[in-house]
Amino acid sequence: MGGYNGQRRQNSVEKYNYTENQWSLIAPMNVERSDASATTLQGKIYITGGFNGHNCLNSCEVYDPECNQWTLIEPMRHRRSGVSCIAYHECIYVIGGFNGMSRMCNGEKYNPVTKTWSQVPDMYNPRSNFAIEVIDDMIFAIGGFNGVTTIYHVECYDEKTDEWYEATDMNIYRSALS
After folding, report:
1. For residues 108 and 77, is the Cβ–Cβ distance under 8 A?
2. Residue 62's Cα: distance from chain center in Å?
3. Are 143 and 154 in contact (CB under 8 A)?
4. Among 54, 62, 79, 114, whose Cα sits 20 to 30 Å from the Cα of 108?
5. Which residues pair with 117 in a beta bridge?
6. Which three-class secondary structure state does DSSP give residue 20?
7. Domain boundaries, given as residue ranges, for the chain
8. What is the pTM (predicted TM-score) of this model?
């Protein structure tokens, strides 16, 4: 989905058919973007933020494979490139990233039923280009870049308490990781 070909940002999207071992183009996104983050929820693909070659983006889109169509959804409150997003408790959580001036520690979540964004508490550490995963029903933000250096910090968000907690740091500094 999207990306950078060495000359410009892309809006093209390819899908992989593992039974035929082939890639094919599907409907293009509405916005050219690299450095975005995508996740799936209820059989649809959501892509958030990114960079269009000039600006960090707050635009988001959802892909419906039933009709092979991308639809722009309500934009995020903040522009984010190098962002991480993940589906968690029937919402799309978008955390951290780079707004064009600094790395961010804030986050927001999208509710596809109400089609609205709401703020989530700030992480302890601002970061972009980090890994995100749900483990033991909590969102973990792992490593990344804080604007000065690669970091090895790990923290987790618990929706029940609506708080971030520090977790055990990694042994190695890592950015742009999965």
Report:
1. yes
2. 13
3. yes
4. 54
5. 110
6. coil
7. 13-126
8. 0.96
